[in-house]
Amino acid sequence: MIRGTSGPHDLDPKPVSESRTALAQIMQVSDANLAGNVHGGTIMKLVDNAAGLAAARHAGGLAVTAAMDEMSFIEPVYLGELVTVKASVNAAFRTSMEVGVRVEAENVTTGRKVHTSSAYLVFVAIDEDGNPRAVPAVIAETEEERQRQREAKLRQDARLARKRAIEDARATRDRA
């Protein structure tokens, strides 16, 4: 059962800009993997932290990670680079939100900046008892934000279709 208001449109909508979050951190030796670059898990943790903050800003309270829909590693991150993680809510559904994240690495000596990773995460807003609660709708103010909102809906549809297909396959297996 979902507590709180009955849906996202009963709450005041919020623009994407209110959820924007940026975190920056210098990568250190403790962040290294066996290859001597920054461990993918370190980047994933930073992504989850930034996305969680963006979701909490939009929801006006606690939101928990429900899924990492996609994480792409485009370029390696090297020790000593400044990693900046930018996140914002792409779309809000009833109790969940899709957050888009972009990771960039900068060599502070040379000034070279590179897009290293992108990710889409799903967060669910929860109340003080840990139950899902409604979230506000997202106001897309630019064409780019409207495109991200459309793509988020496509990803949500794909997630739900995949979930139904898996449930159907399990039901078929259990009847056999």
Structural notes for this entry:
This protein has a single domain, classed as Thiol Ester Dehydrase, Chain A (Roll). A hairpin with a 6-residue loop joins strand 5 and strand 6. By secondary structure, it is of the alpha+beta class. Helix content is 30%, strand content 32%. The longest helix is centred in the last third of the chain and has 33 residues, at 143-175.
Describe the structure in brief.
This protein is α+β, with helices and mostly antiparallel strands and about 180 residues long. It has helices at about 40-60, 145-175, and strands at about 15, 20-25, 65-75, 80-90, 95-105, 115-125, 140. The protein has a single domain (about 10-175), classed as Thiol Ester Dehydrase, Chain A.
